[in-house]
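User: Run a structure prediction on this.
Assistant: Running it now.
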Amino acid sequence: MQFGVFLTIPSPDGDQTAQALYARAFAIAEEAEALGFSKLWLAEHHFTNYATSARPLQLLSHLAARTQQIRLGPAIIPIPLHHPLVVAEELATLDVLSGGRLEVGLGKGYAQYQYDRLGIDRARDQGRFLEALDVLQGALSQPLFHYDGKEFRVPKTRLVPQPIQRPPPVWLVVNTTEEQTVAQATQRGWNLFTGVLEPISRMTNPRLAWPHLFPAGGPALQVGTQRPVYVAETEAEARAMVEHVRWNARISVALRHRFEAVQDGIMVEQPLPWEPDTDTILDDFVVIGTPETCIRQLRRIQEGVGATYFSCSFWFGRLDQAAVLRSMRRFARDVAPAFR
C-alpha cells in the first residue's frame, strides 16, 4: 500500500492569514516529498474557513516548482461547479509544469453552501456531472476530440497545452455500496477514491462486492481512501488528538447535511447529537495512536476496502505545525515500513 498526504488547509478560528496558512501547506508538501510520500493532494472547498484551498490547481502549480518527485493532484475537483474544458486546460497545464506528475481527483462535491453562492442548480447535478466526466476524459486522452450531449456540446477541439501524460491517472469518488457509482469509475478505467465516512468496521471492498466490474485481464485499478492520522508516542497523546478530529467532523458533516451555521464565512462549530465517544472515534474512524495502533488500523482499512493507496490527513482541526511534522516523521519512520 502506498501512502500520500491530503490537505484541506483549515483555519478553525478564521484568524490566520492565507499567506501564513499557505506557508504551512508548502512546508508540509516539501516535508512529504523528503519523507518519501508518493502523492500530495489538495482539497477544493469554497467560501468558509473549513478549507483555504479554493483554487487547488493554482497552489499545486506553485508546488510543482518547489518539488521534484512527489505526484500532485486535486482531491477532489467538484466537477459540477466548473466547465470541464477549463478544468482540462488547467490540469494539462499542471501536468506540463510538474513534468508529468499530475494525478486527477474528481467528484461531485457535497456542500450546498457552495452551489448557492455560485448559482448552480443541484437538480442538474447528475446529468451535468456524468457528461462533464466524458468531456474531461476525451480532452485529456485524445489530441483532438468532440462531444455532443445535453449539457455540453463541444465541436472538434484540441486541448492546449497537451498534457505530458495521456491520460494522467484519474481517481473518481465512489460509494462502494452502490454498483452504479463504482461502475462510473471502472468503465472508464479510472481509480477509485472511497471509504472516508463510514466506520472502519463497516467498509465495503468494491472488488469483492462487484467482482464483475474488475474482470481478470482488465486495467490494474487502484482503490484509495483517507483518514485523519496522528502517530503518537503514548495513548494519552493520541486521545488528546480527538478534539481536533471533532472540529473537522462537525464542520464537514454540517456542510454535507446542510445544517451548517456560518457567520461571515466562519463556520460555527456545533456538537452533533449522534457524535461518537472518544473510544469509538479512535477505534473505528481514524488512524491515531502509537505506531503499533496505527499499523493495526491501516491493516483493517487495507482489508476492509481493499485499499492499495492511503492518503494521510495529518493536519486537522487546531493541530499546530510542529505536531503535524512530528507525526509525519514518525509515520515515515515507524509505520510506513510495515507496508513495503
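The chain has one domain: 2-339.
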